[in-house]
Request: fold
Amino acid sequence: MFKPSLIALALSLSLGVQASSTLTKDNGAPVGDNQNSTTAGANGSVLLQDVHLIQKLQRFGRERIPERVVHARGTGAHGEFVTTADLSDKTIAALFSNVGKTTPVFVRFSTVIHGNHSPETLRDPRGFATKFYTEQGNWDLVGNNLPVFFIRDAIKFPDMVHSLKPSPVDNMQDPNRFFDFFSHDGTATHMLTFVYSDLGTPASYREMNGFGVHAYKFVNAEGQVNYVKFNWHSQQGVNSLDAAQGAKTQSIDFNHLTRDLYANINAGNYPKWDLYIQTITPEQLNSFSYHPLDATKVWPDVPEVKVGTMTLNRMPDNFFQETEQAAFAPANLVPGIEPSEDRLLQGRIFSYSDTQLYRLGANHQQLPINRPLAQVNSNNQDGAMNLGNTKSNVNYEPSRSEPKGALSSARAVETALSGNVQQVGIEKTDNFSQAGALYRSFNKQEQTNLIRNLAGDLGQVKNDEVKYAMLSYFYKADSDYGSRLAKAVKADVKKVQALAAQL
Reply:
């Protein structure tokens, strides 16, 4: 009698099944491209028909029960946002409609990669998510304390996080794994320079800036569009821990970020951030040396304009009911603010909402911390933990007995499309110039700390091909940066130079 394994082998040979090294979807079908989402032309939006992208994001969002897959450890606080600039010429978003307008907010700060009970001293980007309870509904600005990200396409998000998380074999984080992932094209060079600087270990949540990272669209009453970036500037200034300070702090208090925020707010020392925006027109998109909708880039030559100030003035009454059950998603937008064609943002629009549906359930937006101040008048029905009080017999639209129609001013803005349905990366990658500019913006001590921090992990990489690829990226960004790092990990600088010259 044939063994099942032999039968499977015979079938695979006779049917021409792909080799075991072929990447497949969960149904076994081969993946055609695992680097680029399917878009409507070179600058168009990502298409829902990209089954591989959707499947990756869906499966990724369901990997942990009940802890968040990313941003697991967090601290939240209530407050208010006061508008200081009338932006009615740029957007119909009500919170920016007039000077002095006050909007309640809830902010959740977090670590990105590490688990729910991990020390808050660990090197990691910090989440900076703000929920604005506006009269038009809730707007979630879900960003980080660093202005860029590791990747530019959401199709790589599960892979990136997998590489940074502990190994599925021994449950330990390993630089050999994440540098293996980052070594393939240099996309993450800018973000790695940020994370391995002292900005990767904030001294307090109060003393760090925040960024929406992505570009969004402002749409005004005439349907005119501006691309916009949102940047939070801490009024407390920016203060970070170097490696020695971080180690000392961890030995004394591994809850230092949470403890500091609670202590200061409860003492009446309310932290404040000013919100600045940067805007460009659609006609300016192709006028940069980089792609401005690339999440690995900042807009260094676009001026900032202050539009408001946020004050955090009250801690939650109950951590689980508010901070832990708070559900943020870039899909929570209001009229006048729309997603740009940023490929990472396009994936997050789906992924974050889908993750909250899985983590908290279909009716998670009925929870008090997530419930909008605006009246909810949807036809969504039933589901677990439904706290509503629906009395109408009409849960459909259109209806003559109870008319309930759409608001034309909230309709998606029309965007011209060109090109073919494709799976191709963006043309202007420019992976290295902004990373070099960031390195040169650091003072000598900050540069020294960056080299030491990076060398500590990169020096553990056993695969020379991975190590030298990473070194060539940092050298390409800045020759001093790459040379010092190569010497710190005892690598051949000339070999690094030769590899960098090929990039």
